[in-house]
Predict the 3D structure of the following.
Amino acid sequence: MAAITPERLSLNTATTRAQWKLDQAIEGCARHGFGGIAPWRDQLQALGPEKAARQIREAGLAVSGLCRGGWFTAEGALTQNVLDDNRRAVDEAVTIGAECLVMVVGGLAPGSRDLESARAMIEEGLAKTLDYARTVDMKIAIEPLHPMYAADRAAVNTMRQALDICDRLGDGIGVAADVYHIWWDPEVRDQIARAGKKRLMAFHLCDWLVPTTDMLNDRGMMGDGVIDIAGLRGAVEAEGFSGLNEVEIFSQENWWKRDPDEVMRVIIERAGSVC
Amino acid sequence: MAAITPERLSLNTATTRAQWKLDQAIEGCARHGFGGIAPWRDQLQALGPEKAARQIREAGLAVSGLCRGGWFTAEGALTQNVLDDNRRAVDEAVTIGAECLVMVVGGLAPGSRDLESARAMIEEGLAKTLDYARTVDMKIAIEPLHPMYAADRAAVNTMRQALDICDRLGDGIGVAADVYHIWWDPEVRDQIARAGKKRLMAFHLCDWLVPTTDMLNDRGMMGDGVIDIAGLRGAVEAEGFSGLNEVEIFSQENWWKRDPDEVMRVIIERAGSVC
């Protein structure tokens, strides 16, 4: 398996969100020779999707995904408001030429303990968003989140569960496989194989630190934790995945406090040596 | 489904570990009318297993489990030292008349990223411990831990995975189903049904708080979080599980700081109203 070179990397802008606005991240990606970028919607909206699209194009960057649609359970029912917002997310993904719209689907409805109904609401929301996305040729990528986020961020928590949804919904929907969320799963290799090239729409990198001191914002740089990242990359590439390796690190106490150019250099070094 | 009355409760002594030694916990359980207790080995050894057994018997308490054997990966290989310690744990479980020996199996070997080999080591350790446990009629209960503990505490992380191991190893081994670890799992009800009465050896209660501020020691009192505890109890009882409802709450900043008699009263109240 070939080492990851910079042009095979994409920067998920969450990695430098404390330091760089989107235009700076675009410049940073170009300066460090990254092949792509994956913006978050708040930053995209702050810059303006059209303007961002132009800058990304001029910088020669691909867009490995737009983060994120979803949160179907946020209002306790699948409201028109939530569906409209997802439709806008699809449109923004089209505007910037994203490979896919990444879905963080939402957790339990506010005040609820009913996971089954949350999951039904999520699937209905995905189906409706997919209906629209197909008309504009945008792919929908469900990101199964680690089970520790089942209550408050995403009630789709394994590759198996996400792929079961994909099987029910048909073409145009797949998964964003983030090593942080899936590395622990005894079935992860079988489910990557099940997904295959068609359903593998994004591949996200970071690492699981021991100890992890914050459930949301203490993700590690590749190589600083315990995930067999190379093994998982081998598994997705064995299925024919040829997208960029998107680096997404939430790190309140470490990487968000560093010089972002240093962060980019460390990403390149680690991607080439431990991934 | 009948409400849980105090005689259907067992106190896992972790719940009051900051306040009570084992002899005090035994007295507390008797005073509050609990049906049973589940000691941890450090406390058991401090009191002495024979003495503890006598006090538990005199207090009229059942022993819903001994916490815990396992940690097969702790020394990087399945050493005789680790196997001997598990054999001693089996003997202690027999001495106190425990329903089962609960297994926290261990995470990655120190310095390793190889989950598969950790899982193989764990299964071999379980098999060897089970061989001995069968000769003294002690049941072995694998406790699948939440995936957030895969690296550092237990690399058996779902009911499916635990039951696959049980199927390979045969009679005398089953699962300890703790709502904290399994509530998020889309397959939890199917896997409880698959386990059936024979493999369901313990049922542990607490709650998942939102937010959870510490990955180990911020578990909630039943009713303070988002787990559908009654639903899960209904599922295990539908399979014929008739063991005690064991309450195990690690709570550094809340319940470990309270008067333990207050903790016991709140457990009884919540068990009767929300479980």
In short: The mean pLDDT of chain B is 98. Chain B has one domain: 6-273.
